[in-house]
Write a structure and sequence with these properties.
Elements lengths: L3 H22 L3 H4 L5 H4 L2 H11 L10 H10 L3 H4 L2 H13 L4 H7 L8 H14 L10 H21 L13 H13 L7 H6 L1 H10 L5 E4 L9 H5 L20 H5 L5 E4 L15 H19 L21 H5 L7 H5 L5 E3 L12 E3 L12 H5 L10 H5 L12 E4 L5 H4 L6 H5 L7 E9 L5 E9 L9 H5 L8 E4 L18
Antiparallel strand pairs: 1-2, 3-4, 5-8, 6-7
Helix pairs in contact: 4-9, 9-13, 9-16, 10-11
Length: 504
């Protein structure tokens, strides 16, 4: 058993490198075909929450059983052996803590605060049961995907001069997303693996499942001399020197390797094995937290949001489900934004309401939806953005209509040919549809100085516009484009439409 810690480190480094490789390979998803969403598909919490909100277990999420079923028999192994955020927390805890033994003993004792993760899990599942998928705010896999893709890797890309992204990228609110991860990592300076012990809802789910595990770390009461070396090394605050709390045990195996008398072992119970402690939950606090979540759901729905009212700036990626279904499936992981080749997909703040925080929206001032790109639907782990073929997106046979994201509108007070008698046809030139949704009328104009000029004043034909945003992105009026896309007319909504003779 002496090499278990080394074996775990090898596995941990392997999965951390694999996570980094998948993030890097997202840049080449179309060519390489790697499953960049692999860790999300292995996440039992994502699968359970998506099942509650949509009553559907998306095909890719069935891989979560690879983690969930072994947990029922082996214990909470995911947290120390596979989870990228858990591995980072454990590594930083090791670097931060060079303390005297008595301080380490006190710090690694179990605290009632560590019940909080179970109450958070219950509240998030209540939200999911009512169709509001907020798991992604705290789920460690979604959180680390989002933080790396939208904050840390863009920062590294800027400093290193490129490599993580095909072009320099920026993300709306990226500093807030990165600050959350940095706060989680820095918390290890004060309490070892604070996130894993006190806040992680996935750890709470796996801890709850592990209470029935047959194999676990056990202590031989005859061999134990109460030296507390196991407690000093414990990463989960599982009290291995007493009645071990197996629901809190991360199976890091540090305690086994630290034990000088070989009193600890992993496996089935022996004749002189100590009795473990059951799951520690205050039932009154659990009921209070559940009731608070039940009250919070209608309060959230009662606030103005994209679920209740179409919002012009909430333009979703191509293939997105209708807004209520989209919010019931999107886990805010940021993968669609990671693979977007033009950087148009951005994390929303509160444009779509609280439920839409960090969900993807198009910001055409930054990029545009590439006409033949369908990568976002290919990487979405919960099918909030359904996979599209290029033919379906652009509306070629056998499809009769393209996917529309919205409709472009001119602001004639800012348009150069309309407001300033300056020739410009950039929007018409860049329009990708055939026939073009933007056309112009040639008119003679007499300027103030008496000179005669011929201008091409542009118009939008709404039934041809797909809302891709390239006209807005390329408009030479840089700060606030003279043509801007609104969500009205989007294919996914029957309500968010304009009254036009050409539309039913």
């Amino acid at each position: 058993m002496g090499g278990l810690r080394g074996v775990r480190r090898i596995y941990a480094i392997f999965f951390l490198v694999l996570f980094g490789f998948l993030l890097w390979s997202a840049e080449f998803e179309r060519l390489k075909g790697y499953d960049v969403e692999l860790f999300l598909q292995l996440d039992p919490l994502t699968a359970l929450a998506a099942l509650l909100t949509s009553q559907t277990l998306y095909q890719g999420l069935a891989l979560a059983l690879v983690i969930l079923i072994p947990t029922l028999f082996l214990g909470r192994f995911f947290c120390s052996w596979i989870c990228p955020l858990g591995i980072l927390n454990q590594g930083l805890s090791h670097l931060f803590h060079r303390r005297r033994a008595v301080e380490a003993w006190e710090e690694n004792r179990y605290r009632p605060l560590y019940r909080l993760k179970y109450y958070l899990l219950a509240a998030l599942l209540i939200f999911a049961l009512f169709g509001s998928l907020q798991i992604g705010l705290l789920d460690p896999i979604a959180l680390i995907y989002r933080s790396f893709s939208l904050s840390l890797l863009p920062a590294v890309d800027r400093v290193s001069g490129g490599g993580w992204y095909a072009l320099p990228v920026v993300f709306h609110g990226g500093i807030a997303i990165g600050a959350v991860l940095l706060a989680i990592l820095l918390a290890n300076r004060f309490i070892t693996r604070f996130w894993c012990r006190a806040l992680c809802p996935l750890g709470a789910l796996l801890g709850w499942c592990s209470q029935w595990s047959l194999t676990r770390i056990r202590r031989d009461v005859d061999r134990c001399n109460q030296c507390k070396q196991c407690l000093k090394a414990c990463q989960g605050a599982a009290d291995p020197d007493g009645a071990l709390r197996h629901t809190e045990c991360h199976l890091c195996m540090n305690c086994i390797e630290s034990c000088g008398t070989q009193a600890l072992h992993y496996g089935l119970a022996k004749e002189r094995s100590s009795v473990g402690r059951p799951l520690d939950i205050n039932r009154r606090r659990l009921v209070e937290g559940t009731l608070a979540a039940v009250v919070a759901v209608p309060m959230t729905r009662g606030s103005l949001s994209s679920r209740s009212t179409p919002t012009p700036e909430v333009i979703r990626p191509p293939g997105s489900l209708p807004e209520a279904q989209f919010l019931a499936r999107c886990i805010k992981c940021g993968l669609c934004m990671r693979v977007c080749p033009t950087n148009v997909l951005q994390p929303a703040l509160f444009e779509a309401g609280f439920e839409g925080l960090w969900t993807p929206v198009l910001m055409n001032a930054i990029g545009y939806c590439e006409h033949h790109c369908v990568l976002c639907g290919q990487v979405c782990p919960t099918a909030a953005i359904r996979p599209l073929s290029v033919a379906e997106k652009v509306g070629v046979a056998p499809f009769t209509q393209p996917v529309r994201l919205g409709t472009a509108f001119f602001d004639r007070g800012r348009c150069l040919p309309w407001a300033m008698d300056v020739p410009c046809i950039v929007c018409e030139e860049t329009c990708p549809t055939s026939p073009k949704a933007i056309w112009y009328e040639t008119v003679p104009v007499t300027r103030r100085d008496g000179r005669q000029v011929t201008l091409k004043r542009p118009f939008v034909q709404p039934e041809l516009c797909i809302g891709c945003g390239i006209c807005e992105n390329k408009c030479p009026v840089a700060d606030l484009a003279a043509i801007r896309v609104s969500s009205v007319g989007e294919s996914r909504s029957r309500d968010n439409r304009m009254l036009l003779n050409q539309q039913s």
